[in-house]
Amino acid sequence: MKAINTLVTAALIAAPLTASAQDINFGALADDTHIATVTTGAEHGLLLGAGYDRVVTLGDRPLVVGGQLALQWAEVDVDDFRLRLGALAPIFDRGNWKVVGAVCSTVRGTRNDTARMINVGPDVAVLAGRYSRHWFAVAELGFDWALATHVTHSDAYRMLVYADARDGWYGNAGGTLRAGLQTGVSFGGNDVILRAGRLADIGGKPPMFPVYATVAYDRRW
């Protein structure tokens, strides 16, 4: 039964919601900027998200802190969600050329006929490229680690598969690597940002949906 439970928890790793670095043009930011974001696209599945971020100053560098909630939108279901909280900041810059680091904590949930699952884990990313006032283009490299999952088995699972299945936390030895590009345009207090790239597990194998592509709209004030 341990193997079955491992398969159950692994199902969340392949859930349609995954963490990602926030879509922000650092070349268009000012001190104490507020940013509201809506995002849609495909990343392990179709998603629709909304978020809020704020720029604060850490020393002489901008630090963007905030969060985002995303749902699966092919069939909107509050049981399939992703909540991301984190921060990103330039770790190196020379003029308009920057290297940005991002660290997020992620909580994801999903429910199916087998179980209700809540997963927690970190996401780290590095973005490098050119950020200017009116446009930017950067490369993105990130790793989303599924650290642990809480499993609550369904009554159907207990009746049909294993009556003594144990609910609780299970460690996951998996994660998703992503590599891609971001580009966007900025005008007034608005940003339109595109992301696209490829996904792979830690063994280098592609998931069921091996590519991602999203579009985001940011409103700054």
Give me the secondary-structure topology.
Elements: H1 2-13, E1 34-43, E2 46-58, E3 61-72, E4 81-94, E5 97-111, E6 115-131, E7 135-153, H2 155-160, E8 168-187, E9 190-201, E10 211-220
Antiparallel strand pairs: 1-2, 1-10, 2-3, 3-4, 4-5, 5-6, 6-7, 7-8, 8-9, 9-10
Task: Describe the overall structure.
The protein is mainly β and 221 residues long. The chain has one domain (2-216): Beta Barrel (Lipocalin). 8% of the residues lie in helices and 64% in strands. The protein is built from two helices and ten strands; from the N terminus they run αβββββββαβββ. It has helices at 2-13, 155-160, and strands at 34-43, 46-58, 61-72, 81-94, 97-111, 115-131, 135-153, 168-187, 190-201, 211-220. The radius of gyration is 19 Å and the shape is elongated.
> Strand order within the widest sheet?
1-2-3-4-5-6-7-8-9-10
Query: Structural class, judged by helices and strands?
Result: mainly beta
| Overall residue-averaged pLDDT value | 87
Using the coordinates shown, work out and report the CATH topology.
Lipocalin
Number of separate structural domains: 1
CATH class: Mainly Beta
Q: Determine the number of helices (DSSP H or I, runs of at least 4 residues).
A: 2
Q: N- to C-terminal separation?
A: 54 Å
User: Which architecture would the CATH scheme give at its second level?
Assistant: Beta Barrel
Radius of gyration: 19 Å
Largest beta-sheet characterization: 10 strands, antiparallel, barrel
Helix fraction, binned, reads under 10%
Q: Element order, helices and strands?
A: HEEEEEEEHEEE
Based on Cα principal axes, name the global outline.
elongated
Strand content: over 45%
